[in-house]
Design a protein that fits this description.
Helix content is 47%, strand content 19%. The two termini are 31 Å apart. It is built from eight helices and nine strands. By secondary structure, it is of the alpha/beta class. Bound molecules: guanosine-5'-monophosphate. Guanosine-5'-monophosphate binds next to β5, β6 and α4.
Length: 223
């Protein structure tokens, strides 16, 4: 019995900056055709190698505020002095098609998504770094941030890590592939939740009908 109709889920991933969450999200999306990435909007300047519309939609503060005022953002927050937010339209469209959406947002974004009209679809996963030294090394290695930015991100990490207590799942990124596997297991299990399977009632009815017909048939044979 194949259940084809599903209420799409919202996979919300958070972590302190440098815990490897963006690479994880990218890998998950690559491997799963039913999981789409929510591309956030931000007012932070574009960094080398980033492409508008791929990593983020890079907006001016005015444009960002306009979109918030027009109700076009599902959630938004100030992170490290810049604004970040989730455009609502693409999320609605993907969920409407029964697809799942992955979000790379901070704890404030996660909280707002849980409180949004789509809150019951949220599956939240917090990615912990294996150690503070590892986190700092990763931030230095990616070479994207100024010294000041880096210190801000390290300081923010303390607060962010404390927030993991309100997430549904916590995974430690000590081994990239193991972490991908763990999150894929979470997705697979969450997709099987009875109430996410919108076609389930119909399928049960069909199955029950089949049973009844079969029983009727065997009764006739016996008499
Ligand atoms: P970065 O500047 O390193 O790309 O992102 C900084 C932080 O902002 C990360 O923790 C990231 O998860 C968070 N972030 C990215 N997009 C959004 C968003 O749309 N909403 C919220 N609330 N946080 C976001």
């Amino acid at each position: 019995m194949a259940i084809r109709c599903r209420h799409g889920l919202m996979l919300v991933l958070s972590s302190p900056s440098g815990a490897g969450k963006s690479s994880l999200v990218r890998r998950l999306i690559e491997r799963d055709s039913e999981l789409l990435l929510s591309v956030s909007a931000t007012t932070r300047p574009r960094k080398p190698g980033e492409i508008d519309g791929r990593e983020y939609y890079f907006l001016s503060r005015e444009e960002f505020s306009k979109r918030v005022a027009s109700g076009l953002m599902l959630e938004y927050a100030d992170v490290f002095g810049n604004r970040y937010g989730t455009p609502k339209g693409p999320v609605e469209e993907a969920l409407g098609k029964g697809l799942d959406v992955a979000f790379d947002v901070d704890w404030q974004g996660c909280e707002q998504l849980v409180q949004s009209e789509f809150g019951n679809r949220v599956v939240s996963v917090f990615v912990l770094p294996p150690s503070v030294v590892e986190l700092e090394n990763r931030l230095i290695e990616r070479g994207r941030d100024s010294r000041e930015d880096l210190e801000g991100r390290m300081a923010g990490a303390i607060d962010e890590i404390e927030r993991c207590r309100s997430y549904d799942y916590v995974v430690v990124n000590d081994d990239f592939q193991r972490c991908v596997d763990a999150i894929e297991t979470i997705i697979a299990a969450e997709r099987m939740r009875r109430w996410r399977q919108s076609g389930l009632e119909e399928q049960i009815e069909l199955l029950a009908d089949e049973f009844r017909k079969r029983l009727d048939g065997s009764n006739r044979t016996l008499t």
